[in-house]
Amino acid sequence: MLTEKYGEPSDCVEKFQTYEPKDDGSKMYQVKFDACLYYATYKTDKGNIELSIYHSDVTGCCVRLIYFDKINGDVAKTDALNDL
After folding, report:
1. Where are the domains of the chain?
2. Is residue 38 a contact partner of residue 32, using CB atoms and an 8 Å limit?
3. pTM
4. What digits encode the pLDDT tens for the residues 15-53?
5. Taking Cα atoms as reference points, which of 33, 32, 30 lies closest to residue 16?
């Protein structure tokens, strides 16, 4: 749905550390043991959206959707630069 709404992701990574799995069950096995990096980033005029899959513990995996607000991010960056 994110691709339908925002277009193709600006960055998309699906990288496995130990072997290239052939099915979804094998992919999730690697996620559970922190042997996989998976995320997609969508850039918009109002900020970025990151979708990722990660493990919360050996028995669980989670999908995380993070919104990075451009306006407030720029304000925070300006404040940080002024502190230097």
Report:
1. 2-83
2. no
3. 0.75
4. 998 888 989 889 888 888 888 999 999 999 999 999 999
5. 30
